[in-house]
Design brief:
The strands form two sheets. This protein has a six-stranded mixed sheet with strand order 2-10-9-4-5-6, with no helix packed on it. A four-stranded antiparallel sheet has the order 1-3-8-7. By secondary structure, it is mainly β.
Length: about 110
């Protein structure tokens, strides 16, 4: 059974930091490129960062230099370290496959506000 459980979101002031985690079932995680996505109210879901099974990372321009994606293959866990957060980063964050995502988890809410 495919399972993705995101956690670590919360309310943070602009300039603050958060670390998101995603616990994935081995069937979806092992040997596959994974990604973080986000969806703000009234916006489409967008790709934020991706990482190959070997650890090569890529980012959308708006988060480059502020976010770091990583993975622990032994724990089937994906991470997103976020620094210098901005109000426009406010969204529900999801993890999933980089290619052909499906069966979305519940996501974790990130709110950046004073």
């Amino acid at each position: 059974q495919v399972q993705l459980v995101e956690s670590g979101g919360g309310l943070v002031q602009p300039g603050g930091s958060l670390r998101l985690s995603c616990a994935a079932s081995r069937s979806i995680f092992s040997g596959r490129s994974m990604a973080w996505y986000r969806q703000a109210p009234e916006n489409q879901r967008e790709l934020v960062a991706a990482i190959t099974s070997g650890g090569d990372a890529s980012y959308v321009d708006s988060v480059k230099g502020r976010f770091t994606i990583s993975r622990d293959n032994a724990k089937n866990t994906l991470y997103l370290q976020m620094h210098s957060l901005k109000p426009e980063d406010t969204a529900v964050y999801y993890c999933n496959l980089r290619w052909g995502p499906n069966s979305w988890g519940q996501g974790t809410q990130v709110t950046v506000s004073l």
